[in-house]
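Mods, move this if it's the wrong board.
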Amino acid sequence: MDMIKMGILALPLALSIGCSSSQESAPKPPQPTVFDPLTRQEQRARDVQNTIDQGALRARRAVDAQERGDAPPNP
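Not the wrong board. Structure tokens:
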């Protein structure tokens, strides 16, 4: 019985120690790799595609409004 009582008392203590915040420093920024230029280029291509998609959406809305005879939408 004494082992069970000791285990019951030790379990919360172990959990509180294990879940407490440690004195770790902030994570280091990732090291540059050979893929960094490729990932930057890929992100740049995504940004260009988003710009093109937004322009196409504005043009599509303007054409739709013109077909209906409405005033063109504000950009």
